[in-house]
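Support reply, case 0932

Customer input (verbatim):
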Amino acid sequence: MRRTALVLIALGVVIAMTGASLRLAAWIGQTDARANWEKEVAEPGSTANATGVFTRLSFPARGREFFVLDGASRANLLLGPAHIEGTGTPGANGNFIVAAHRDTHFRILKDLKKGELITLNRRGRTFQYRIVALEVVRPTDNSFYQPTSTPVLTLVTCYPFYYLGRAPKRFIVRAELLESNS
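Our regenerated output:
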C-alpha cells in the first residue's frame, strides 16, 4: 500500500514537472521572440530572418499579443504560434493560417467573440482583421484551410480546450481584413 502511494506521488510529480516545463518553454520562447522583434523594429534586417519571428499577433480587446514563428514545426509550436508554411501573407489575398497549442498560447481563443478585432504587424505594416466565424470542426475538415481570393486570417488550435490527451476536434477562428496601413 505504501509503495503504491509513493509510486502515485512520484508519477504526479513527473506529470506536474512535465506540464511546468512545457509552460516554461512557451514563456521563454515568447520572451525571446519579443526581444528579437524589438531588435528587428529598432534595427530592420537584424534578426527576423535568423530567428523566424516575423509577425506580431495582437488581441486588443484581451490585451494580449504573441509573436508568430514561421513554419509550424514541433519545435516552433512549443515556443509560440506558428504560421503554416505555404499559406497566405498578412494583408494579401489568400488565407494566412496560424496554429498554436490550446494549453499555452491559444487558450485565449476560447474567450474570443465574433466582431472582435485582431491585429497583425509585419515588416512595419499593420493589418486589422475582424472575427467573422468561430467554429469547432473535425480534424479531417479542411474547409478552413483552403486558399481564399480575399485577405483572410485563420487561427487554429485543438479542442476541447481542457481535454487531456490528443484532442478530438479543432477550434477555428476566421477573420477578414478590415484595413492595412504602413
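We compared this against your earlier run and they match. Two observations from our side: The chain has one domain: 2-181. The CA atoms of residues 36 and 51 lie 8 Å apart. Please reopen the case if you see a mismatch on your end.
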